Amino acid sequence: MGWIQKSLRRSVHWLLFWLFCVLAFIIPGILFNISSLLWATLGFVYPIVSTLQHIMAKLVRLKKSDECTIPVAASESVPNREDIESMYPAVNGVRVMPIQERHLSGALAVYNKFVGSGQKRLCCLIPLSLFPTSMDEFRLYFATENARSASAVAIRVKEDDATEEEVVGFVHMVDASMDRDPFSQWMHALEEGECYIETMCVASEMRGRGIGLRLLEFCEARARERNARVLTLGVVANNPAKRLYKRFGFVDRKHNAISYCKTLLVVFCVMGSPHCGVGGSVMEKDLSLLTPTV
User: Fold this and answer.
1) Mind giving me the DSSP string for 203-265?
2) Cα 136 from Cα 70, distance rounded (Å)
3) DSSP E strands: which ranges in 36-181?
4) Which helix (H) or strand (E) holds 91?
5) Within 10 Å of residue 203's Cβ, how many Cβ atoms?
6) CB-neighbour burial class of residue 25 (10 A; exposed 0-12, middle 13-18, buried 19+)
7) Burial of 265: CB neighbours in 10 Å, binned 0-12, 13-18, 19+
8) Mind listing the pLDDT tens digit for each residue in 25-54?
9) Hey, what's the torsion of the CAs at 264, 185, 149, 134, to 10 degrees?
10) Are 149 and 223 in contact (CB under 8 A)?
């Protein structure tokens, strides 16, 4: 019966999403009498497209889960303390290393807390905390060794036991060789020679300690190992993290009016205005011209 309750809950969430998308487009058109027909059309079309993409993504994930599933009870053995310290030395009490099955629950907790925090709301109304990612969905992003090797976790090290791992940060990077769900592909289509940071988050109590920088360094190093020409990421407007990205060498990518409008629309509908700004942008770092940072 659990899957029935989950399906009903998701259906209610998407129904609310649909209604608020419609209202978000139709009401401004009516109130301000500005391109009312266009706004009303977008209000109906966008939820339909979003719903279809959601269904397609679910079908793709179900197919991938049948073809390649990581066991819940991981068969991997945890390396001993000496091996961990030699391969991934801790800096200021934090170790950055490739994500493994044993890290998924901790990484998911950090990710869901990050997504549900602040002012992230569908159409500035519905809190994203109502839509936590499940472990089954999260695990599918790391169904292959190729995918796991491109993502990392930051682990707080305890002095008395280096093998006890508390995840305090997480980064997920993809390239053109990896399977992605249709919505992610539509949002940012990857080119050959590009590595894209889809998600990066650090636990709120651990921010300001250089963990974000080290996760970026990990991504750049792995991107260079894959002979990538450019490293990219998306950032919403007024995100304070953009200062870090610029110091690391990222610059805003040029975009046309169509891509700008698409980003503006999607960010508003999916996240609202989390940092009191509108829309977002893609930033890139040219790896062919710069020397490695690690």
Assistant:
1) -GGGTTSSHHHHHHHHHHHHHHHTT-SEEEEEEETT-THHHHHHHTT-EEPP--HHHHHHHHH
2) 10
3) 94-98, 121-122, 126-127, 152-158, 161-175
4) none
5) 19
6) buried
7) middle
8) 555 555 555 455 555 555 555 555 555 555
9) 80
10) no
What are the residues facing 283 on neighbouring strands? 233, 252
pLDDT of residue 286: 95
- Using an 8 Å Cβ cutoff, are 74 and 100 in contact? yes
Cβ neighbourhood burial of 79 (10 Å; 0-12, 13-18, 19+): middle
Of 19, 14, 10, 75, nearest to 44 by C-alpha is: 19
Does pTM surpass 0.70?
Answer: yes
Q: Is the pLDDT assigned to residue 80 strictly greater than 70?
A: no
Tokens, residue 120: 């992230």
Distance (Å, rounded) from C-alpha 282 to C-alpha 293?
21
Sort strands 230-236 and 194-202 into parallel, antiparallel or unpaired.
parallel
Q: Among 57, 283, 41, which residue's Cα sits nearest to residue 186?
A: 57
pLDDT top residue among 278 and 163: 278
Pair of tokens at residue 56: 């397609």
Q: How confident is the model at residue 160 (pLDDT cuts 50, 70, 90)?
A: low
pLDDT at 283 exceeding the cut of 60 = yes
User: Which pLDDT score is estimated for 294?
Assistant: 47
